[in-house]
Amino acid sequence: MYSPLIDELMQAFRVLPGVGPKSAQRMAFHLLERDKEGATKLAQALTDAVEGVGRCDCCQTLTEQSLCRICANPRRDSSVVCVVENPSDIIIFEQSGAYQGFYFVLHGHLSPIDGIGPSDLGLDLLESRFSGGDIKEVVLATNSTVEGEATAHYISEIAKSHNILVSKLAQGVPLGGELEYLDGGTLAHAISSRTRVE
Amino acid sequence: MYSPLIDELMQAFRVLPGVGPKSAQRMAFHLLERDKEGATKLAQALTDAVEGVGRCDCCQTLTEQSLCRICANPRRDSSVVCVVENPSDIIIFEQSGAYQGFYFVLHGHLSPIDGIGPSDLGLDLLESRFSGGDIKEVVLATNSTVEGEATAHYISEIAKSHNILVSKLAQGVPLGGELEYLDGGTLAHAISSRTRVE
Ligand SMILES: [Zn+2]
Ligand SMILES: [Zn+2]
């Protein structure tokens, strides 16, 4: 409908979550009509991030360092590791101010139907951290969905085999909800009253 | 909060219309976690479009050619020109199937308070097209906002001074609305019953 470069740009915007044909068109025209500088900066930021950002060697969160800021911080409590599904979950924990330990990011959950098994989530890396001896407690903070709970259960079995205390967030996390949408206050409460998994 | 490259990417997404901090975060993580290839394509499409897309020499719409597809089409009716505010308005006209003439894209409307005057909209170029002698009618299809109407009035005065018939879209265009949100059927009706501006 438009000239090829504009069509391609609109199509390219469709890779973004929540962006349909109408939004893609608005984005393309907005940038080409009013903010070519912003478009160039976005292109550069995308290229830099794609090339530079990988996963933390220790917790698997997204970072351009070999160790993320949290894993590289010697003042964190190395006796606790909190397991989350997504990098953005870490931010919610940090904003709550109620957690001083380390993290482990699964980038998803176990999903046999999609062929996602323990090694895809890096659970071998997590188990090697359990073997290290520093970790005394693992806080399971996967989403409270069926898949999230199943993943948490799987990890709790590994942790117990290493004699590591397993806990999960206290009630207060809405059932069926995703951590990302939780406010800091609710989460702070859920962290401080986390319950032990027997 | 995140590592610098991720922060920069999130910030860069904020140039897109309708994208707040939360959407920007979701976009950045989605691409970095699940679609680096899509991110690279988007970066390339942005770069190509920023470098390649300019304005049609004749109608000012966005295109990477010196003449857009419509202006370069000898089978269009060269006796009518339709004046619209945005390139995307052209698509709505084309989809309606009710218009065979040419277009002229203002990329906005007169807005003295923002320092946007006739030359910023390319009205000198439009007037030189009026002077060419081919154009017998101008269809004013600016948005039916105060600024859009004022712009239409200004253009109608120029057109009349060149003895060009001036028309506007018939009732059917919702008052206070923007053309972009109109369906093709309503627009087709409005085009076929357009009224002459005296
Ligand atoms: Zn880390
Ligand atoms: Zn053109």
UniProtKB/TrEMBL annotation, chains A, B:
Pfam families: RecR_C, RecR_HhH, RecR_ZnF, Toprim_4. A zinc finger (C4-type) spans 56-71. The keyword Protease does not apply. Transmembrane segments: none annotated. Gene3D superfamilies: 3.40.1360.10, 6.10.250.240, RecR Domain 1. Keywords: DNA damage, DNA recombination, DNA repair, Metal-binding, Zinc, Zinc-finger. It comes from the Bacteria. Residues 79-174 form the Toprim domain. The keyword GTP-binding does not apply. Belongs to the RecR family. May play a role in DNA repair. It seems to be involved in an RecBC-independent recombinational process of DNA repair. It may act with RecF and RecO. This is Recombination protein RecR. It comes from Sessilibacter corallicola.
